[in-house]
Amino acid sequence: MIPTLSIIQAAHERIRPHVHRTPVLTCQTINRMSGAEIYFKCENFQKIGAFKARGGVNAVLSLSPTELKNGVTTHSSGNHAQAIAYAAGLVGAKAYIVMPRTAPQVKKDAVRGYGAEVIECEPTLEARESTVDEVIAKYGATMIHPFNDYRVIAGQATATKELIEDYGKFDTIMAPVGGGGLLSGTALAAHYLCPTAEVIAGEPEGAADAVLSFKSGRIEKAPYINTIADGLMTNLGDKTIEIIRLHVKDILLTSDPEIIAAMRLIWERMKIVIEPSCAVPFAALLRNKERSAGKKVGIILTGGNVDLGKLPF
Q1: Range 268-274, long-range pairs (CB < 8 A, 24+ positions)
Q2: The pLDDT of residue 303 is above 90
Q3: Whether the predicted pLDDT of 35 surpasses 90
Q4: pTM score > 0.85 for this model?
Q5: Which family does this protein fall into (predicted)?
Q6: Residue 17 above 90 pLDDT?
Q7: Within 10 Å of residue 94's Cβ, how many Cβ atoms?
Q8: Can you give the pLDDT at residue 125?
Q9: What is the rounded CA–CA span in Å between residue 263 and residue 276?
Q10: Domain boundary among 143, 168, 202
Q11: Are residues 96 and 229 in the same domain?
């Protein structure tokens, strides 16, 4: 069932000892440039450097001893991989993480650093899923989907729950969208705790599937995949599309040059490290300033796991 408020509250209590209550930062210069009053929820300071720790920890800690006995598995290009590896370590379970061979080496190394076994595959969704199936057949591990899992969604919802608890009501709350786990959680937390807020997603033009799915009601594929926002290249799932169509107001597209400019602006003005995918909702806001003019806006800054050797500026 779609997570209720009580399920999200229980998830928050479950993960509280193992994740950070991340800070919320503001910037007067950015507020002047955007015309909005923006509160950035800094999940780049989260455990493993991304919000994914919330959903991963909640999912793993929700499993029974029987489900944990043969370990856990998932497929991910980076942040969810680290989240499951970290969470498995908390409960002493084996983790088998399927990662595309093209995933950044720094992310593979981080997953191994948490004690997980990395199994590489070709960089396609089909290869990821078939390799996970092989792991399940061989080891009997329990699969935790990167986003299309209500336990993961409930964990991701806790970031917006904290934002609203700490800073009150918002006119708009924004998050990026890839597979939709964070956006679903954001929308649910806002629906229960700040129902007057509009939840708006940012999506790269070079991975524009969610905007099509949002309109059609079916899981669509992007016309083409070519974006610096490597964490947002995934299609929605059946669970996330349902929640998004119920509780999200709109999905706004943004281009790679706009994403890079927004990322650089946050680095320069706020002195914090964020990754390209993280900058997408802020880039979408800057592209559509008139929509947020004079409004109080919360933005989930999703992570800071950027390859410092390949900065786009």
Answers
A1: 269/27, 269/29, 269/30, 270/25, 270/27, 270/30, 270/40, 272/25, 272/42, 272/44, 272/301, 272/304, 273/44, 273/304, 273/306, 274/44, 274/301, 274/303, 274/304, 274/306
A2: yes
A3: yes
A4: yes
A5: Belongs to the serine/threonine dehydratase family.
A6: yes
A7: 17
A8: 80
A9: 6
A10: 143
A11: no
